[in-house]
Write a structure and sequence with these properties.
Helix content: 40-55%
Strand order of the largest sheet: 10-9-8-13-11-12
Shape: globular
Oligomer: single chain
Radius of gyration: 19 Å
Length: about 290
């Protein structure tokens, strides 16, 4: 039996997590001096509802090794002999390193264990790692072996294409994802930055004026970059405005020949802290 686990930035829906028995190590969110566990003590809609009124910018912290270790131990107690842990990019958080430490702790406590544990540095954020996790769960359901899942993740983790655009540039400035100069220019020209992941870190790859052009940018880039063989589903993410995500889904269905499933999922508190209200994203496998 193969256990799949991750950290809470994967932003997979509760329905997906429950269906595929995926366990999450939660990040922590510091809101006005009070600590919350992501998706345990605070939920996305609750957080986005209070976000605009917060006098201080919330901060996030990686899961502790003990959070990962607890999941590993519970999996082994349930009879799992193989554990696949898929973490957000090591270029943006210490979550991956925390999972590696937990693995070391596990084998220090059980040096003769025959359990296999593999930690994946997904080089992705939010539904980027979520795409890998969901695909892995689907492959497991179809009978893939542990080694096949490990090989798939290590082969394709740098092929998960991210597109993210935000409504509020201030959050990207405060989280270090955008310079003040770029933000000022963007505000003056009413430009929305479009970001992706490069070498495990966020990078701006375009700027568009208005949401309509952002969605068109996404669609055209998907047509140009999509790996038809590997992309059997797309994930569209949003923070506070689901209607925008539904508009993007409809546009992809209308303007492209993609016939697979397009799943809409909300970005969680950890990711939302950095991207703010009104963010819209898309994830697929590129050529």
């Amino acid at each position: 039996m193969i256990k799949i686990m991750a950290d809470s930035t994967c932003d997979l829906s509760d329905e997906v997590l429950k269906r595929y028995d995926i366990s999450l190590a939660p990040l922590t969110i510091n809101i006005e001096g009070k600590m919350y566990k992501d998706r345990v003590d605070i939920q996305p809609d609750e957080f986005y509802g209070m976000m605009e009124a917060l006098p201080e910018f919330p901060t996030t912290g990686m899961p502790s090794p003990s959070e990962y270790l607890n999941i590993m131990n519970e999996a082994v107690e349930a009879g799992c002999k193989e554990i696949l842990c898929i973490c957000m990019s090591s270029g943006t958080s210490g979550s991956y390193q925390s999972a590696v430490i937990a693995k070391d702790y596990f084998f220090e406590a059980s040096p003769d264990s025959n359990v296999k544990i593999h930690i994946v540095d997904s080089k992705s954020m939010s539904h980027g790692s979520g795409w890998l996790i969901l695909k892995s769960a689907m492959m497991r359901e179809q009978g893939a072996s542990f080694d096949e899942l490990v090989d798939f993740n290590e082969k394709y983790k740098k092929k998960i294409k991210h597109f993210l655009s935000v409504d509020d540039l201030d959050h990207l400035i405060k989280s270090g994802r955008l310079t003040n100069a770029s933000a000022l220019i963007g505000k003056i020209l009413m430009l929305k930055p479009i970001m992706t992941m490069k070498d495990g870190k966020g990078a701006i790859v375009g700027k568009e004026r208005g949401l309509k052009r952002v969605l068109n940018h996404y669609t055209q880039e998907f047509i140009k970059r999509n790996d038809r063989e590997m992309t059997d589903f797309i994930i569209v993410g949003y923070t506070s405005d689901r209607k925008v995500a539904e508009n993007l889904k409809a546009k992809l269905q209308l303007d492209t020949d993609f016939s697979g499933e397009i799943q809409i999922m909300q970005m969680g508190v950890s990711v939302g802290t950095h991207v703010g209200l009104g963010a819209i994203s898309m994830y697929f496998v590129e050529k």
